[in-house]
Amino acid sequence: MAESLELPVIDLSSPDRISTANFIRQACIDYGFFYLINHGVEEQLLQNVFDESRKFFSLPLEEKMKLGRKGDVGFAPIYAENLDSSTSSKGDLKETFHIGPLEGYESHIKNQWPSKELLPSWRFIMEEYYQKVVSVGKRLTSLIAMALNLEDDFFEKVGALDKPYAFLRLLHYPGEVGDSDEVIYGASAHSDYGMVTLLATDAVCREKHKQPRIWEDVRHIKGAFIINLGDMMERWTNCLFRSTLHRVMPTGKERYSMALFLDPNPDCIVECLKSCCSDSSPPRFPPIRSGDHLRERINAAYSASS
Ligand SMILES: O=C(O)CCC(=O)C(=O)O
Ligand SMILES: [Fe+2]
């Protein structure tokens, strides 16, 4: 039985930004995960997004497949993605819908939307949620910069937040536990690829970097986002801040969640911060173009289906 993990709680509305940044620093060193409360995204909007998501995933499969994944956006059915092909060959027992940047990438990201006849408010609600969570994510990254003793606009200055590459992913884990002999995961073990993820959900399992792996449950706090750092934050900080492995186990209970991945502009070069390396602790990763890193990881997760 997994132990329950008490993650730190960060209050985004606190006027004392220095203390908040210090709490964030400790949370990112210890866990790479924390709760974010008082973020300003209204309960009602969160509820509306869950409701609309439920309506979409309840449509017949052929209707959902009309919006099948093109480029990185649209619907992907169960087993399409495999976040950890080393533990399972079948893929993850979840279906997803991805919404990409609303502006700045029109030439190659063509968001798909359910028809107004089927789901009249869908696009409007998703766009509102997307914009609000991206702006929460930007406020959070300024505190993360402060937590690294950088200017609060550091991530803007390096171009990461100039047309950030943000994706909203709606997730639906069906209630069944799968019919194969193999272990099937809702979402198999992975770390996120980008900068920071803002997750709204009802229950998850997280793992700490330990061998043998010890999995700990994360409880849901109503209205709070669960924040986790992605691999690019780990690269910037030379592993001072963690991009922690996590997974979702099928419990036999249906579950919905939505993750906003706030990733840097694809042209942003992610390289070890000067304050995070020294002669005795040289950079563990070479500089990388954010878009190249993302492309490699996304392609690997969808390689069986694309
Ligand atoms: O649904 C969840 O709780 C987690 C999903 C997740 O980790 C992901 O999509 O990267
Ligand atoms: Fe994840």
TrEMBL record:
Q: Name one Pfam family in it.
A: 2OG-FeII_Oxy
Task: Look at the named UniProt entry and state the broad enzyme category this protein falls under.
Answer: oxidoreductase
Citing just one GO molecular function, the answer is:
metal ion binding
Superkingdom:
Eukaryota
EC number(s) per entry:
1.14.17.4
Q: Which InterPro entries match?
A: DIOX_N, IPNS-like_FE2OG_OXY, IPNS-like_sf, Oxoglu/Fe-dep_dioxygenase_dom
Listed A to Z, the keywords are: Iron, Metal-binding, Oxidoreductase
Domain Fe2OG dioxygenase: residue ranges = 164-264
In the record, the note on similarity to other proteins reads:
Belongs to the iron/ascorbate-dependent oxidoreductase family.
The protein's name: Aminocyclopropanecarboxylate oxidase
Organism this protein belongs to: Helianthus annuus (Common sunflower)
Q: Provide the organism lineage as a comma list.
A: Eukaryota, Viridiplantae, Streptophyta, Embryophyta, Tracheophyta
